[in-house]
Specification:
Elements (H helix, E strand, L loop, with lengths): L1 E5 L5 E4 L4 H13 L5 E3 L5 H12 L4 E2 L5 E3 L15 E4 L4 H13 L4 E4 L12 H7 L3 E5 L2 E5 L5 E5 L5 H10 L7 E6 L5 H12 L6 E7 L2 E8 L9 E3 L4 H11 L6 E4 L12 H7 L3 E5 L2 E5 L7 E3 L7 H8 L5 E5 L11 H11 L3 E5 L2 E5 L7 E4 L4 H10 L7 E4 L11 H7 L3 E5 L2
Parallel strand pairs: 2-15, 3-14, 6-7, 10-11, 18-19, 22-23
Antiparallel strand pairs: 1-23, 1-24, 3-5, 4-5, 7-9, 8-9, 11-13, 12-13, 15-17, 16-17, 19-21, 20-21
Length: 434
């Protein structure tokens, strides 16, 4: 589907989507807990549906007919490995689904074939796979398929801190049902650490506390995460909190408008790392207001800024959308891991900014953007990347002519109702090529 956006201002208030990051974690922990419970997550994105469907295939719960909640039973599957039937787990393009469930399947001693679609088959799994195989799993790659069997054992896992925090989170989610103590040593500095903190916060909701400290490991300092075997105790119901990653796009749009935009249904004390969007937009000259469960961003004194985005990579697209029209040169530092996202996001963000009349370039692992007074119209390819499509839509509000986003349906990966919400805030769009 292509979406053509006519120049118009956005403004008003919008409810937050449920947090995709927290939903993955709560769904998996609920499915592994001893007590039956439900997880409500509102409008399901493709990634959340992928995780829910995989858990359902494993016999660990049921996705509601309306696909907005997941109900678990009282079983944790077959941790002793009596059920050897190979199951097929379709991860779609969700890196979280694959990286979280890979160790979970091993902890359950289940045999599975993981189906990877799109760029997921090209996104890195090393040295994660090597650590899992050293601890009892047998993992075989066959094109887009990943076949695994064998029981995952506890002990010491050693991982780099600069590849993916999802490796650590996956092991933390599986650790309570491994049946043995688990220590995870991660070389410092740990990039995207807020996502590990999000995993630990989810575990705490099930009564599991992760010990965390810094220790010497070999010749280097490592961060150590340790768990001893203990049951996951579930509450009757969990409601997934609002998503800061997607809210960031509306707040970024508000930072470009004198009316501003408010997003409600957010946890203003959340451990989600992308809550940093408020401070980042303030650095870019926006006026930020917080009240109750809502945050508002409004255009005030636009200026350039420099950010270290190593721990908040998903904020690069909305920050780039704002920086493109701010006076001066902004620099988004340490963004190299964006090359491993749904697209090479450093390249695609740069291309979209330049295509729409902005000035962006990649300098090593940094994204450098020099603001222009106004963007022009044009045609951009979302590159099957939901965050690139949403970034282009926000930039279109400051373009002098129409902007067409090709492949605009990719927003369904994290935000299926994005275009409808865009119209609710005053956007004018035409859809074609359904």
């Amino acid at each position: 589907m292509d979406v053509t956006i006519h120049p118009s201002s956005l403004g008003g208030s919008i409810p937050a989507m449920s947090s995709k990051s927290m939903a993955h974690r709560l769904l998996i922990l609920a499915a592994l807990a001893h007590d039956p419970c439900s997880v409500a997550f509102g409008t399901a994105s493709e990634d959340i549906t992928a995780t829910s469907s995989c858990l359902e295939t494993l016999g660990l719960g049921t996705l509601s007919s309306s696909q907005d909640a997941f109900q678990t039973g009282s079983s944790t599957g077959d941790p002793e490995g009596r059920d050897r039937e190979m199951v097929e787990l379709d991860c779609g393009e969700s890196g979280s689904t694959l990286r979280f469930l890979l160790p979970v399947v091993g902890a359950l001693n289940r045999s599975a074939t993981f189906v990877r679609r799109g760029r997921l088959a090209n996104r890195p799994l090393s040295p994660f796979v090597e650590q899992l195989t050293q601890h009892g799993m047998c993992i075989e790659e066959d094109g887009a398929l990943l076949k695994t069997q064998g029981k995952l054992h506890g002990g010491s896992f050693v991982l780099p801190g600069n590849v993916s925090s999802q490796y650590v989170s996956g092991l933390l989610l599986a650790a309570p049902i491994i049946g043995e103590s688990v220590e995870i040593f991660v070389s410092t500095p740990v990039e995207s650490r807020p996502y590990i903190e999000l995993t630990m916060a989810a575990l705490e909701q099930f009564g599991v506390v992760v010990a965390c400290d810094k220790v010497g490991y070999g010749a280097h300092t490592s961060e150590r995460f340790a768990l001893t075997p203990e049951p996951l105790n579930a509450a009757p119901q969990y409601v997934v909190e609002g998503d800061w990653s997607n809210a960031a796009f509306w707040l970024a749009a508000g930072a470009l408008e004198h009316e501003g935009i408010a997003v409600h249904g957010l946890n203003l004390a959340s451990v989600q790392g992308d809550r940093a969007i408020l401070a980042a937009l303030a650095s870019l000259g926006a006026r930020i207001a917080r009240r109750g469960d809502a945050a508002r961003a409004t255009r005030d004194n636009p200026r350039a800024a420099t950010f270290d985005v190593s721990s908040i990579p998903d904020l690069v697209p909305p920050l780039a959308a704002v920086a493109a029209t701010q006076p001066g040169t902004s620099r988004l530092r340490n963004a190299g891991r964006l090359r491993l996202k749904e697209s090479d996001r450093l390249a695609t963000v740069t291309t979209v900014v330049n295509t729409l009349g902005g000035k962006a370039r990649v300098a090593g692992d940094d994204l450098v953007i020099t603001g222009v007074p106004q963007l022009c119209g044009g045609v951009v390819d979302a590159a099957n990347d939901h965050r690139v499509a949403m970034m282009a839509a926000i930039m279109a509000t400051h373009a002098s002519d129409r902007v067409t986003v090709r492949g605009a349906q990719c927003v369904a990966k994290s935000y299926p109702t994005f275009w409808e919400d865009y119209e609710r805030l005053g956007g004018s769009i035409e859809r074609s090529g359904f």
